[in-house]
Each structure stands twice: as C-alpha cells, then as structure tokens.
Design a protein that fits this description.
With 243 residues, the chain is an alpha+beta fold. The protein has six helices and ten strands.
Length: 243
C-alpha cells in the first residue's frame, strides 16, 4: 500500500513537468513549426552552445519602437540574461506613446508576457501578448483598449511587432524551446525607445503628455540594463511597480 501511495505521489508531482514537455510535441504537429525547426534549429543550437547557453533555456524579449529593434535575451542556469539575437522590425505602425484604444494603430508600450503560440497564424507564425493588462485597461477608461497584439511574420502591422518570416521562425522556435523547458511566461518589455536620460529628455520634449507614463516605465529599463535580470513586475492603480 505504501509503495502504491508513493507511486501515486510521484505521478502527481510529475504531471506539471509532463505537461510542459508536451508543448514541443504539440507544436511539431503543425507544418510551419516543423519547417521552422528543420530550417533554423540546428544553427540556433550551434549559436547557443557558442554562447554557453546549452541545455534548458529561459528567454526574455525587449523591443524598442523608435529604434525598430527587438532584442532576444537568453539564460540557462546562469543568473543573468545574455543578448543572443537582435532583429529589426520590418514595418512600423503608429507613433510614440502607448496604445490607448482599439484601432488607434498604436503598438503598446509596457510590460507583458507571451500567452499564445499560434502555429497557423495569418501572419505565418505569431506570439501573442497579454495585452491589455491592468495598466492598459485603466488608461483606456471607458474606451475599448483593443486586443490581439502579436510578434509575428509577414511584414505588415496595425499595432503589432512584425518581423520577416525567416526571423519569426527563429524567435518562435526559441519560444517553444523555452516553454517546453518549463518557462510558463516569457516576458516581453516594449519600450518607446532606449530609455537613457538623453533620450528621455529628447522625447518628453516632443511628447510631454507621456512624461508620467515613461518615467514610470524607465526603472524597468534601468534595472534590466544594469543587472541583466528581470525586475519583479506588478500593477497597482494604473502604474507599474518594480522590485
């Protein structure tokens, strides 16, 4: 009886790991994902090993609207993230400042995470963000804040972050690997620009209405730049709180 109970306990404790490890198998049922692995995974593995990033990985994405750049950071057992790849946006939408309402064409600014891996996207492959979060919803007030914000391929956008199909294949494969390895939430920080003091002064002069929001967002940029670690993020009364 004791042996049976121990077996039941072992199975129960293994269920989360089994669920995570099944993510890759489920994704590989889709042709676009299989093709992405066939085309990209061998080279990515080589690059990961060269960077000392073998084994299970965690990833973090930072994106900068003004520079039109998406940075993909990776760590394994290390405590700090390492910049692994940099990709250029292949199209742009809107202007500086966060997304406020549906159909405003704005790319959001703020702290998000990937909550959808779509292998049959209209835009080749896509990674969905948890927009709108509590900060976005409070900012939008009674207006509909919009939804369906993705990092995707196909080089067209009305508020998303578009990459070429070749580049989204790489990002998508690495996202699958991270989630399959146990990373349930992949952070995505979207900044209006590289939030240095000089840039803050420059762009606040041009967009004074964004000063309060950008100063609220800047500590996340400063912390990650200084420590290569993610700050703990929470949302309180329409503002981000970082620890």
């Amino acid at each position: 009886m004791k042996r049976f109970l121990n077996l039941i306990f072992l199975v129960i404790t293994m269920l989360p790991a089994l669920a995570q490890s099944d993510i890759k198998n489920k994704q590989l049922k889709f042709e676009r994902v299989r093709n992405a692995y066939d085309e990209k995974w061998t080279a990515l593995q080589t690059d990961l090993k060269k960077a000392g990033l073998g084994g299970k990985i965690e990833i973090c994405i930072t994106a900068y609207k003004t520079e039109g750049v998406l940075e993909l950071w990776i760590k394994n057992k290390k405590h700090q993230f390492t910049l692994f790849k940099t990709y250029n946006f292949c199209s742009h939408s809107g202007t500086l400042g966060p997304k406020v309402k549906e159909n405003d064409g704005q790319t959001p600014e703020g702290c998000y995470y990937i909550n959808v891996l779509n292998p049959v996207s209209t835009y080749h492959l896509s990674l969905g963000l948890n927009y709108p979060n509590a900060v976005d919803k409070l900012r939008s007030g009674e207006q509909r804040p919009g939804s369906d914000i993705y990092i995707h391929g196909n080089c067209v956008t009305i508020g998303c972050i578009p990459l070429t199909d070749e580049k989204i294949k790489e990002v998508y494969v690495l996202a699958v690997e991270a989630q399959d390895g146990g990373q349930s939430k992949i952070p995505v920080f979207i900044f209006p620009f590289k939030m240095t003091s000089a840039n803050m002064n420059k762009y606040i002069t041009q967009f004074p209405a964004q000063q309060i929001f950008w100063k609220n967002l800047q500590p996340a940029y400063d912390y990650f730049k200084a420590h290569k670690k993610l700050p703990a993020v929470s949302e309180l009364e329409g503002k981000y709180v970082f620890k």
